[in-house]
Sequence to fold (586 residues):
Amino acid sequence: MSEEDAPASTERGKTVHGEAANAGHRILAPDDAEVEAYLERALKAPAPDRSRDDRPAGSNDMPPATVAVLDFGSQFAQLIARRVRELDIFSELLPHDTPYEELERRGARAIILSGGWNSVYDTDAPRPDPAIWSGRIPVLGICYGAQLMARELGGDVMAADHREYGPATVTITSEDGLFVGLEREQPVWMSHGDSITRLPDGFRSTARTESTPYAGLAAPDRNLYGIQFHPEVVHTPRGRDVLRNFVVDIAGIPQTWTPANFIDTTVAGIRERVDAHARQTGSDGLVICALSGGVDSAVAAALVHRAVGDRLTCIYVDHGLMRKKESELLRVTFERDLGMNLVMVDARERFLARLAGVEDPEQKRRIIGDEFIRVFEEEAAKIKGESGRIDFLTQGTLYPDVIESATSETKAAQKIKTHHNVGGLPADLRFQLIEPLRYLFKDEVRRVGVGLGLPEAMVQRQPFPGPGLAIRILGEVTAERLDTLREADWIVIDEIKAAGLYRSLWQSFAILTPVRSVGVMGDGRTYANVVAIRAVTSEDGMTADWAKLPYDVLGKISARIVNEVPGVNRVVYDISSKPPATIEWE
Fold:
């Protein structure tokens, strides 16, 4: 095995619960499912069909110059694509065996081979189309990708006597375009059990470690480069420079993937698509969008509104499970400030009635999803133009959603999580989809939101689960327990913002536990609720570490909750990381 991505269980294609991967059980899914999560969860509907040509536009309506990241199963594969995007260059994560002709058709100007948990000498080891070695498009192999390059082109790879997992020091041994501007000694992150033992003809060694003679290899005249370490992780401090040297200097790709360009081309594309449909069908080109209060649906709605104006109607189902003041912020932003058509449905009593007596978290999700569908259908049916129909549904689908909802797009990956994502409307309520964010990562969505003028409180909002506070109340959801949690959660966020820590945390929130404990308040004995505090740091929500909040901040949070929230006499702090825990408790 050549890298960190060993399977979570001994069976390939199984979740940690032993089910087939992507079987619909919530395991380690990102803790930021918005409206689409309700829809799929309720109806178990498949992801919608999408054209392979439905891609972001560049100049002259052509796709932007692309870096194709071929996925060989690394848990870091998405991170590679994100790092390239941070250089203002568009990148796509594609299956490892994507045909070379398809790469050219998609505008690939450079190819990066990800790591992977296989060994290249395994009989079933994933391999790319051999045409990528032609030299017409520059190729960078990372870890497994570098070993694959060496073996496929005539070199040797063997199990290493000394495996390297974790921090290491690489010595750059040869002047090479990949390492321009870097000092000779570089701290890097290694994660491999195999090593290249002989280079292919025409290659030279460009870097080494004490136990790895070929930590870097290159054949510049053939546009082929390889590195044994991982430049995409933060533990390789100059990794970003290595990637920049490859995609900007070696491949010569222009840095034009910016929020401003994305907004301009996306708005123009949406407007053209809706107008064309209206002309062809004689319809009004009406669009609806289900707002959840989260970042994704908010940015998607703002983009579509800029394109079609009053033909967009946003529907917000207030299920009563939001944080304090979030529904009010949404109304002010979309109705007053942006002038959108906004339908706010007060369905709080309906949701509470259906959740009465329910304690199982998965049952809560199913109920919330099903009731959301019912309310959404009712409101959508009231929105009719002269043609008597709605033509488009806007969804805040993100790029990780698209990747994870189609197993064919991650053939080599060892699945350790299921996906929460897209689709889910009933067959008789099908619209054409507008998914303006489907090629963006979360950090890019926030940048676009800023470019659209959305308020910081909405754009920089921490991830919030689709079922809302219902899964942060352990046990039955009641109006009284919701009020208790809402007030405690407000204090958590208030103090974390006051300490200047909000933006540095991935998520921070309160959980109302089913535990009661004895306490003393004033001169009397109490037997009241225990509230838990959760705060984590993360880059993408797939892994997370508990945040080392200052003791004085924790002290203020605890004191305020106990003093200001009736029925709470004890506060505890969760110091579990993900894995083995998840970010949410349910």
Remarks:
- The mean pLDDT is 82.
- The CA atoms of residues 446 and 460 lie 7 Å apart.
